[in-house]
Amino acid sequence: MMESKVTIPPAFEGPQVFSSAERFLGAPPSQYLKVWQMPKRFAAMAFTKRQVEEQREHNRRVSNTELKKQLTWFSFCSLGVGIIVATGIFSFMPYIYAFITGPSVVISLIIAAAAAALSALLYSEFAVEYPVLGGGFVYVLNVFGEFPAVLCATNLVIDYLFSTAAVVRNFAVYIAALFNLQDASDFQKSVSFQTDPIDWLALLVVMVLTVALLFSMKIFDESNIFLQVIHVGLVLFTIIAAFTQAQPSNWTPFFPTVGKTDPTIVLSPSGARTILTGASNIFFVFIGYDVIALGAEEAKNDWAVPIGMISSVGVVSVIYVLMAVSLVMLIPWDVLAAQPGDVALSGFAYAFTYRGMAWAKYIVALGAAVGIFTSTGIGIYGLSRVFTTFAREGMIPAFVAWVPKRTGTPFIATLAAGLACGLMAFFTSFATLANMTSIGTLAMYYFVALAHIYRRYCPEFESLAVSGDRQLAVKFRPDPFKNILGVAGKKVLLLAYLAAITGCAIGFTLFWNLSLKNGGLIGTAVAFVVVTLCLQFTLPIEYVPAKFSVPPWMMPWAPALSLWANVMLIGGFGAHKSDYVRLFVAMGIGTVIYLFFGLPTSWWRFHGAGKKDTVPLPVGAIGSTTGAVGTRSDSAHQGHHGD
């Protein structure tokens, strides 16, 4: 065992971040011109990781200060509920009910909720151990290195930008409904230089929320909690109103193929395929809880994030299931399916009108408008925290991460996020924005699941020490494979298992999409179970975080099932060809940004003048407050960070 002393590089304290080009950008301008050094720098830095205490100290210096720790578990819960619920509860779920599942939408929701809960559990474990901004970007960075993290996070930025702009673009639609206007044209204006009308109301909403976030996160948090109480209250009122008109006969048949009131309406396929197709599509309404992990640095205590994240998924799951049950008993699926697609997207409003309760559509419109308002603010919040993390890690100019001590919020990052979302919503229609699913976020969920398994079964350190309140590792039983295969061999075996699990999920998706016989589906599902069992019984868990972790009895099934679910979604259950194009275009953009800006900045941070003893440490080297960390002394982990 050897001791590797962490040296904190000089950084950008206070307003001095604006005092020179180096402090402004993160490295001297000349470093960005040395493109001939790119191969050497890439080999040295692309897959290096970070050490937590060094990362936190660096963040404080770059940003001028840490963000204020002012968010409770209830604050995080309200953030999660606000961004997940938004308008999907009133629109997307009725659409799935009408055109895909029929009454079995309830089972689809329960399956999707279980998949979301598994992923939230993984995020919660990481968030407690890495209490810094960045969420999935930081987790992948600490396990797999800079380059994989940048590829994932670039897609995350685009997803937050598009989804937030898409949500607020619908604000005018529900305001028009509240005031009995024919459509949203009073708030939108056609222009000659583009096809989509501009939306000044969407821009106004974004600017108001951005100003609130700029000057007081506490005020935004308290306002968000207040609005979430109103939002959930309106949702509960909708549920109760729907139950007063309940028709239990709408539940039969549970797996319909032909409509009862309109036999020309056909659903196919039926049974398990219907449920799984519905679950895979409806999973998208659960996306967004990762915004809680993005703000882990602002948590008042270590338990705020896991409690807030898991409780938000639980609350949303209960709300969604109750809404689904009430919708099923309010209107037959084939009556809703007989309407145009845009009517089905406003399913609850139409259902109340169908049952002679036209007044209730105003409650639905008000609930949707409140949901849009809060979700937009939370989306801007999440995007600003991603920008801040990017700037701290040198992927964009360092000045973006500046945090004024008075407000304790990232001023420039928040302003940039608000401007980006506002302009996108101002110029781009909902139809254009909604055509992009959250495939980038799913890719991030997939890599977080990979990172979770990797660090629990193959942490790149050997220590049983306890550093402060951080337990570095726990040995559960002797590992015969380490003696037989060695460290490198065990790593190869683990990667083979992960590749096999991914392959099983890809195979299952292909059989599903090609509508082949069930034998292929059963075969790939059985193979997944066998591979996961082999992982469980041949490779013991080597690392368990001290404060919060996925219980050992759920390993490796929780991350493996999360990995499986995200691969299937990425593989085509809910995505379109344009999503894959956008996914790889975003990765290409991220690669260019990393090679020409992030890589020189990162190189300078660890190898610049006077910093030759400063190295990013291997994954899992969770240091004490003194900065002294124990790492493995084998040759596989030495010598690759030299100048």
Q: Quote the CATH topology of the largest domain.
A: Amino acid/polyamine transporter I
How much of the polypeptide forms β-strand, as a percent range?
Answer: under 5%
Distance between the termini: 24 Å
Report the top-level CATH class of the largest domain: Mainly Alpha
What's the architecture of the largest domain in CATH terms? Up-down Bundle
Largest sheet, in brief, is: 2 strands, antiparallel
The structure class reads: mainly alpha
Oligomer: single chain
CATH superfamily of the largest domain: Amino acid/polyamine transporter I
Average pLDDT taken over every residue:
77
Number of helices: 25
Give the number of domains.
Answer: 2
Overall radius of gyration: 25 Å
Side by side, the strands of the main sheet go 1-6
Structure at a glance:
This protein has 643 residues and is mainly α. It has two domains: 207 residues, no CATH class; 345 residues, Amino acid/polyamine transporter I, CATH 1.20.1740.10.
Task: Detail the topology: elements first, then pairings.
Elements: E1 2-5, H1 21-25, H2 38-45, H3 52-63, H4 73-85, H5 92-101, H6 105-129, H7 136-144, H8 146-169, H9 171-178, E2 188-189, E3 198-199, H10 200-215, H11 217-243, H12 272-282, H13 290-294, H14 304-330, H15 333-337, H16 341-345, H17 347-354, H18 360-392, H19 411-427, H20 430-434, H21 439-457, E4 466-467, E5 470-471, H22 480-513, H23 518-538, H24 557-573, H25 577-607, E6 628-631
Antiparallel strand pairs: 1-6, 2-3, 4-5
Helix pairs in contact: 2-25, 4-11, 4-14, 4-18, 5-12, 6-12, 6-14, 6-21, 6-24, 7-8, 7-21, 8-18, 8-19, 8-21, 8-25, 9-18, 10-18, 10-19, 11-14, 11-18, 17-18, 18-19, 21-24, 22-23, 22-24
